């Protein structure tokens, strides 16, 4: 039974990539650090060129990636299509994916959400030292904790709202009550996207 499940997984990946990905042919874009077919399938949505609205995975912390992929697989974290794509992945495959993604260079920032100047001004009353306590002084992440600096603002906003609404668990005080208004959350997400 396990063997038939393994044979079905590549078809599921191809289906989701075909439906939701914006895959680039090898002739158009040769990755700097080619990895496994599974890694390339991840990047067809998460975008090695930095143009996708899915979160950036390249250069993200390896321990964090490993933890989150396992959480999707184990239904401890839910998000379409990740729930389906991670089913059947064993710990070794997850570790390999995490290592390959983490070894890649973080893409150059390219805001898809418009100019950041108003966003930066709107964050003047937000104390980023609260974020820096865990995510590091420059918000670059560390073992088991994700990088926020340079992450795509639509993804960050979605996650900040999920934490505030207690739909996504978060350690510490951030998840206990909505710390910022919606406009502050948007401003924070846009400012973080432009951080280097």
TrEMBL record:
Gene3D superfamilies, A to Z: Cytochrome c-like domain
Biased composition (Basic and acidic residues): 164-173
Domain of life: Bacteria
Keyword Zinc-finger: no
Chain residue ranges for the region called Disordered: 101-120, 162-186
A GO MF term: heme binding
Signal peptide positions on this chain: 1-25
Keyword list, A-Z: Electron transport, Signal, Transport
Protein name: Cytochrome c553
Native organism: Pseudomarimonas arenosa
